[in-house]
Amino acid sequence: MSAVVNPSAADSGHAHADHHQHKESFISKYIFSHDHKMISKQFLITAIVMAWIAMIMSMIFRLQIAFPGESFAFTHFFLGDKWAPNGVLSSSMYLALVTIHGTLMVFFVLTGGLSGTFSNLLIPFQIGARDMASGFINMLSFWFFLAASIMMLSSLFVESGPAAGGWTVYPPLSALPESIPGSGTGMTLWLFSMILFIAGSLMGSLNYIVTVLNLRTKGMRMTRLPLTVWALLLTAIVGVLAFPVLVSAVLLLIMDRLMGTSFYLSEIHIAGEALDNMGGSPILYQHLFWFLGHPEVYIVILPAFGISSEVISTMSRKPIFGYRAMIGSLMAISFLSFLVWGHHMFVTGMNPFLGSVFVFTTLLIAIPSAVKVFNYIATLWRGNIIFSPAMLFSIGMVSTFIAGGLTGIIVANSALDIQVHDTYFVVAHFHMVMGVSAIFAMMAGVYHWFPRMYGRMMNTKLGYIHFWVTLVSAYGVFIPMHYVGLAGGPRRYYDYTEFPMFQGHFVDLNVMITLFAILGGVVQIVFTYNFFHSIWRGQKAPQNPWHSNTLEWTAPVEHLHGNWPGPLPTVYRWPYDYSKPGKLEDYVPQTVPLEEGEEDH
Amino acid sequence: MTTLLILVVLVLGFMVVLRLSRVAELTSELRGLREEEIPERDNRISGRMMWAFGAIYLLWFLWLPLEYGDVFLPPPASTQGEMIDGMFTFNWWILGIVFFGTNIALFYFAGRYYHRAGRKAFWYPHNNKLELLWTVIPSVVLVAVIIYGLNVWNKITAAPVPGTMEVEVYSKQFDWTFRYPGKDGKLGAIDFRLITGENPLGIVTHKTIAARLAGLHEEVDNAKADLDARKEVLPKSKIKEKEEEIAHLNRLIERIMGLRTLMEQDIAANGENSTYLHGADDKVTKEFHLPVNTDVELVIRSQDVIHSAYLPHMRAQMNAVPGMATRMHLNTTITTDSMRTITDNPDFDYILMCNKVCGISHYNMQAPLIVESPGAFKVWNIMLPIFEKPGSSEPDTKNEAAATTSDTVKTEIAGEAEAAAGTNNQSN
Predict the structure, then answer these.
(1) Which residues touch A307 (CB under 8 Å, ≥6 apart)?
(2) Cystine design at B170: which of A122, A308, A397, B177 (Cβ 3.0–4.6 Å)?
(3) B205 — alpha (psi -120 to 50), left (phi > 0) or beta?
(4) CATH number of B325's domain
(5) Cα B342 from Cα B334, distance rounded (Å)
(6) pLDDT 10s digits, A335-373
(7) Residue B130 lies in a domain
(8) How far apart are CA B191 and CA B355, in angstroms?
């Protein structure tokens, strides 16, 4: 590789910039980069690739659910003769696809992709720091993430197939290779991939926390932080506290699989043989898993809240309603997220009294969530709304969060959960509330901060097409899916044709869902085209395209090592002085000193 | 094939859109338009789209149950199902009000306040009264939801009254087996090490232990003989494997002998009440019948991985976890026949299905449940074969005694069957 001189360094004549810039080789700039801006792009593009893989998987298994036993060239093209003989998806690959789709989406797209991308991009920029506290650990965090991604994808190519026990990989199914083909080498790769992923995630999270606490610029008090940074900080804290528990769960499972221990196994007779394992409990795994697993959904949705708060306020040209209430509700959600894991286990035979405690704590989360929704709506009220694609996606996010959040009240109530547990009702619920909502916020973030990332604009019209078709197909998929669940349709079923009760309109609903899913998948081509086309060919971005108050828009469009050419900006006010009475413009950047007699919010 | 065509059309459609957008992009560039400067016309269109979408979305939401409501389950067929469905109705009303209220506000405001030049947004950063209002109101509503929910939950999960009939629902990859108590009204002890073709649940009795030990000894002897014979030709790894297998079998034997000691101690201590004496007269079957309007306690077990016993028509579900027994009690209220009339479907059957992914045939791990009058149930139940035919083999005095009692049991059963048949006829 030839050494490339950074053009921005060559252009900028500032003495200070020269001080920070140094010649970078291709490798140090694009591959082993310590720069938070580059690392955020690395996270984002990895996540886009993973999202495409996971989405194609979902299209393949949706085809099978809607048209069981029918042959599809599409399926055969991706899976070949072994997993799709004659173009018909095999039952074991069906389960594997469902499992890997969930794993990729939850961990690699919505955790790595969402908080990895935006923590890296926004934390240093919005608090006024030159970079992360440790650029090296930040780089390692991405490389662990990438290694985990590659290991997870490599499990698609092993002979016995990838992990297939559902993304929660409950033992004994995941512990015993004789119980399902996917619990062979594929499962081992899954488990080691998760350990790498968590190691990377911890490095990232610790870095984010230290950076936010220590590297805020002058005047950037905690009560002047944009809500994005608050959300990303709390996400990192939740991650640091929850992820290690998953490592322990995974490690014990690895020992059960490879070293003959019995943490999760007891009294099992399988494949004609009584196993030696005694005294373990599969329920222990579920407790450990969900101790991470539930906070995990908040790790996904908190950054989404942060992004949509920021975008809705900026594009409504109106301060976010109830800034402190928004921070308070973020904190309440983060805290409560650790007390609710048992609501995944109401029908495991757990003591009913313990179940009641989890009903109570879980339903408490509805209160801060409701506050957030009302505050978003109050922010829109009498605003001056500019419908950028980012704003459309943020409004979409609020709407899908309402639809998904409300059904949360159903599934959190243990008596109702008896009926809908593990049916498509639950699948619809969590896709709506953490899948679609988080993806919408992620899209909003990409459209909004694309000029900050690449110095160019994305095409707005294509953004509109992308948004409306995605919104229609998201609802087209997940609203009918509630009906499939209420009809008693269990999830992770390869085929419903053996059940007379799942005929007629039940099939029609599944066909409708699949058609909308394909539509929603295909329209992502528009986004992907827009994204990559704009990286090279988009309009050159101005410094502050959205007339925003936050610090990232005070840095020059060209990426500098150290972000600001001169001294770091000083902050004098909160980030939401939009349309403040008595001001000429409808925005006042955080770097503008308070006028005499002007009140900080 | 049609789907493939649809796919092709979609892809082509999007390619056209991409080209058109490129044209639009070029013209806007020529006119000097900037991506970030969204003209008022576009904002107005987006605002109107918000209204249109909001309206269509909510109308579609109302239309769906009218069109597809027939996929919902028929009325609940158990007492707990009635409670749960009542609770659903209560919750749907609350959620529906919030859903429509918030969505209408969201889409209305979004469309109403689109950007117009010269307008300034209303400066409204916070209002503590409003915040308090929309913290307190959801809290109050949630208190109602929680109290109602826990009340139902406590009723459903309350401990059964003593003497409730137990029925075992036993799962393995990929089918269900059921066990009904015999004359003593109690299910006997089971142990997974005793599972064989003849004893699919591993019921513990003197005979099953003896038979299993004999079988295992034979296996060990065969394995040893095989190993001795082929020691010279087998590779080292194979020899090790064989030795490990023998060690495993020996451990199994040792533990079954431990189980036998345990059983004998328990019988000595508790006499007739020992759970180890209750297994012989149990009835193992592949059919699942329950008497209507009778409280039964389902004891749910698994042989291999986690399964879940899901009875959607009863609104009942409980996981089957290897290594432990979970319990759920159920009081069915509608017989299969009545439900056939209600649903106007002569082929209707209640279904027990597995609802926890358990392997490649998870999707077809089902068993029909027949709910019938107590009389018909009794007739069916009495005809089931008893697990251990009494009075056979082993000239043990103990067994002889058992055999005589069993004979009297037999006559009693026959009498009962007649009586049951009689009641059944009456009820018909």
Answers:
(1) A118, A228, A231, A394, A441, A442, A444, A445, A448
(2) B177
(3) beta
(4) 2.60.40.420
(5) 10
(6) 999 999 999 999 999 999 999 999 999 999 999 999 999
(7) no
(8) 25
| pLDDT tens track for B272-295 | 899 999 999 999 999 999 999 999
Domain tally for chain B?
Answer: 2
Question: What is d(CA A312, CA A448) in angstroms, rounded to the nearest whole number?
Answer: 11
The Cα–Cα gap between A300 and A304 comes to 7
A147 touches chain B (CB under 8 A): no
Name the burial class of residue B205, with classes exposed (0-12), middle (13-18) and buried (19+) by CB atoms within 10 angstroms of its CB: buried
Chain-chain contact of A579 with B120 (C-beta, under 8 angstroms) = yes
Tell me the residue length of chain A. Answer: 601
Residues in chain A with CB shorter than 8 Å from the CB of B29 are: 539
Q: Which domains does chain A have, with CATH numbers?
A: 38-267+284-554 (1.20.210.10)
Distance from the A302 Cα atom to the nearest Cα atom in chain B, whole angstroms: 19
DSSP label at residue A159: T
For A285, the token pair is 């795994």
Predicted confidence at residue B404, as pLDDT, reads: 42
Contact flag B125-A601 (C-beta cutoff 8 Å): yes
Q: Name the minimum distance, in Å, from the CA of B417 to any CA of chain A.
A: 34
Q: Write the CA distances from B234 to B226, B229, B237, B246, B249, integer angstroms.
A: 11, 10, 8, 16, 20
pLDDT tens by residue, B118-174 = 889 999 999 999 999 999 999 999 999 999 999 999 999 998 898 899 999 999 999
Low-confidence ranges of chain A (pLDDT < 50): 1-20
Cβ of A359 and B25 within 8 Å? no
The ipTM (two decimal places) reads 0.93
pLDDT-based confidence at B375, cuts 50/70/90?
very high
Whether residue B42 is contained in a domain is answered as no
CB proximity list for A503: less than 8 A, separation 6 or greater:
none
Q: How many Cβ atoms sit within 10 Å of the Cβ of residue B19? A: 10
- Cβ pairs bridging A and B (under 8 Å): 389
pLDDT for A8: 40
- Its domain, for residue B409, covers 283-427
